[in-house]
Amino acid sequence: MSTVPSELAVESEAKGALPTGGAPTPARRVIATLMKSPAVVVSVCIIVFIALLAVCAPLLAVITGWGPYDFDKSAIDSDLGGIPIGPLGGISAEHWLGVEPGNGRDILVRVAYGAQVSLTIALSATLVTMTLGVVLGMVAGFFGGLADQIISRVMDFLMAFPTLIFMIALLSALPAGNRPVLLVIVLSIFGWPYTARVIRGQTMTLRNSEFVEAARASGARPMRIAFREVLPNLRGTIIVLATLAVPGYIGTEAGLSFLGVGVMPPTPSWGQMISTAVGWYAVDPMFFLIPGTFLFLTVFSFTVLGDHLRTALDAGDAA
Amino acid sequence: MLFYFARRILAAIGVLLLISLFTYAIFFLLSPDPAVQICGKTCTPERIDQIRSQLGLDLPFWQQYWQFLSGIFTGRTYGEGAAAIQCAAPCLGFSFQTNEPVTDMITTRMPVSITVAVGAAVLWMLAGIGGGLLSAVKQGTGWDRGVMMTALAGISLPNYFVALLLQYVLVVQLRWLPFPQSVQFAEDPLLWFQSYLMPWLVLAFGYAAMYSRIVRTNVIDTLGQNFMRTARAKGLDAPLVLRRHALRPSLTPVVTLFGMDFAGLLGGALITETVFGLNGVGKLTADSIAKNDQPVIMGVTLLAAGLVVIANMLVDVAYTYLDPRVRVKSA
Amino acid sequence: MSITSPRTISIPVPGATLLEVEHLTVTFPTSAGPVEVVQDASFRVEAGDTLGIVGESGSGKSMTSLAIMGLLPRGGTATGSIRLNGHELLARSDREMRRVRGDKVAMVFQDPLSSLNPYYTVGRQIEEAYRAHNGGSRKNARNVTIEALERVRIADASRRVDHYPHQFSGGMRQRIMIAMALCLEPDLLIADEPTTALDVTVQAQILELLAELQRETGTGMIFITHDLAVVSQVADDVLVMKDGRQVERGTAEQIFSRPQAQYTRALLAALPRIDDPFDRLKGTS
Q1: Hey, are the CB atoms on B210 and A5 less than 8 Å from each other?
Q2: C107: helix, coil or strand?
Q3: Residue C257 CB neighbour total at 10 angstroms
Q4: What's the whole-model pTM score?
Q5: Looking at the complex, does the CB of residue B245 fall below 8 Å from at least one CB of chain C?
Q6: Mean pLDDT on A152-160
Q7: What ipTM did this prediction achieve?
Q8: Which CATH number applies to A53-318?
Q9: Where are the alpha helices (DSSP H) in A76-173?
Q10: Contact: A16, B301; criterion CB under 8 Å
């Protein structure tokens, strides 16, 4: 996904070594290894915190007394063009992370709802691309022949696309409708080949391994071999790919929303908040710093976790 | 060898045709009637019909697509008789917003995008390869950790966020740089450089982060190869072993990435150009999307696809020279 | 350096002892504390002779050879003494060892494909070894290279010199590795499982080639293998290793006819003996 990542700065970048298919490492040992790394512990804490924020967004709205769409004219200075009253973008007991300039909406509550939108889209897209990628990758790698030909050609074609521009063109042409669902569909269409390519390669290796030969010799049906023998050995790869796909989709969704073709206002989204903040960055830097920091921390944490998972599972396989 | 090139070129043309077909189909199927859009608010049904037939919108899909496609190669005439409008090849139609030929809109903005892409590419290749090498050679040291943390931040920070941050700090707070402006190099070289500096840095940061991670992985892989041990066993000194035996295997795969990324940027750095107000192809794309200017969106999408497909092909050809194993197989 | 020196390991002959290893211990740090992969190994190689080091994988035989080359993997340390022609090697800096590697001690590795850099022609890789020590013009190095390739019986050497490793068969690649090792006429050649990755017929050819070249040049050789059958064909003296310790050492004749250690006897019993069908039956039953 080489054209997307840096323009949007984030995209699943599963180019390094992936755990090769092989005997699954006991989950407990992997977790024990991971928890020894402070970076992983911090990342997991951040992810849990963001997830809680997303889940508890409605609760937060009740506690603070501000809904995501409530204007607070008293928090902004209309004489100065609507910049928030008070230091640091209007941070106060009333608005914990300040307010948006121009309309005085509570940033904390909108960031929490933004987390909800962002995580929902990213996790759904991950689920869809993983399912599609694993199934199609396994079919191509395991059965080969015509199925492999067709799937591989489609993958080549989709990967030759200038993905970002095409996603934008597609999303701008699509009717308003349910934007999050459309985003998941578009992200999935262009995302699955990157999973499928890796899975296909590893399946091809596993197909020729001794335990698959043994299963075949004992008369097991192909579908049974695929699901009972090959799939469990792809577990490590799938976990790593999925963990690294999540930050990719979060970043891409934010980027698309930043460009105005993703989540549409008034539904809050981090990318879209930063996009609005472009007009205010000189007078109210907090407006882009806060959602930007949340976006960064989320992507960063998932990437750290994915990197360490990859190393842990790889080391486990080698041992 | 010749056969191999011919096959690659044919495949590339096929992919481009498919992409153009897909793009056209999406706009044909999903867009609201362009005639209504062009006609504006005060519009009669007769006028709409007139526009439709002038643009060929009353024809079935395949004919419209064919007209569009042949327009790219042979030019195209809209309407008939005195009202006819000529559109020279390569014709991508006219903007609904400004009535300018799309081809002209793109070519006038290409130099900006090329400047952005070339400057950023130089920076990110230097920083990415340098950082990756340093990190791999000093594996496990503070250097390694420092470079990898920076790289991790680089791939996790959205570039629009970095752009805003940089602009806020360097321009608004410290006043080290002026606000970026669209100037030609010949007009004011200093201002030109200052205007492009931030876009270069922002883009280079993201790509360099990704490249340094990949280069590090590749170099560490290569260092573990048996032929490295052979080279040491010959009595070559460590720096020479690294230079002569580790670099080429580690950096050859980077060529593929670079080709694709550079081509992608030539097709416009949407976000960076938009944030810094640079009038390149990327900003044109963003603007045309905001205004739903379909012929322009079509044009820039095809340009981007074309660049990526061509880059892909060039990379494949370059590979036959860079990797002897590929060279001999295809010969 | 002829092959007239006595073929025993116990009686040192002054001036003819090529390599003398005493109390060699190789240690690697692990998370569970330091691990000694080679413990207190002592042996010698006489000029023109072949020492076979036999052991299973993990017995420390490869680490012993890498310690002689000064090429232990990161973190590994060697203590004891390794003397080549009377000069201590372990005390040397990497820079000084560089002059020994290739020039005085050369090595042939197990997997010839991965041991050659796929990006360069075989000629260039041999030239490089030659020029690292002798300098001189590329043209001269190229002539030496072609000569070396001819010596290892590569047909059409002046054309093949410009080919890449993947264009050769496995046996050919190992010949190229041997050419590379011998182009500098080293005093000692370490062959680490040089035939393990090859077919049996190719294996025999390579062994024959090594023996022939050794006769011509008088190079001392350490032949590392897990295969006693191979050792019986090439070695004058044999060192048996297990779990980093040396189990037994002696002349080939002693080891094969009067093995002392239990482990050596077990290894010998597992060996199929083509010349004695009854033994063979005994061994498998």
Answers
A1: yes
A2: strand
A3: 9
A4: 0.85
A5: yes
A6: 84
A7: 0.85
A8: 1.10.3720.10
A9: 87-90, 107-143, 145-160, 163-173
A10: no
